[in-house]
Write a structure and sequence with these properties.
Radius of gyration: 18 Å
Strand order of the largest sheet: 1-2-4-3
Number of helices: 4
Helix content: 40-55%
């Protein structure tokens, strides 16, 4: 689906979906097609939460599932929207730690957060359109 980045955390058997500029119900329906067990009630609750003028949300993809969705109102381009992404990824890591009884494993959480942020950076950070100018050599 357009505007959804799938990040696989294979060692934990978890997927984190990062969705932006899509209705959260559409993102949840996409997750359901991937096999996540999401009820209509859970979809409605998530939809209601996103209507309360929030810029991002992290949710579990169903009660009997440990996959996660990070939903963003807009694509991370500006610094503020990247801040929203990092904020929601932090929530996702916290939920994953809870689900795996890793609340006291701070180093493991830090590595998961680092991995998620690097995967997002690879996807969202754009490369410069023009090559950078080479610096002129200093004359001694």
């Amino acid at each position: 689906m357009k505007n959804i980045l799938e990040i696989n955390l294979a060692i934990y058997r978890v997927h984190v979906l990062v969705a932006w500029e899509v209705d959260i119900r559409d993102a949840l329906k996409y997750a359901k097609k991937l096999g996540c067990d999401i009820t209509e009630e859970e979809m409605n609750a998530a939809k209601k939460e996103t209507e309360e003028r929030i810029s991002g949300l992290a949710v579990r993809l169903g009660e009997r599932n440990t996959d996660l969705l990070v939903w963003l109102k807009e694509k991370p381009v500006a610094l503020k929207s990247h801040g929203t992404l990092w904020h929601e990824l932090h929530h996702a890591v916290y939920m994953l730690a809870e689900d795996r009884s890793m609340q006291k494993e701070m180093e493991a959480q830090a590595y998961i957060y680092e991995y998620l942020t690097l995967e997002c950076c690879k996807y969202f950070w754009t490369k410069p359109k023009k090559p950078l100018k080479k610096r002129s050599k200093r004359v001694k």
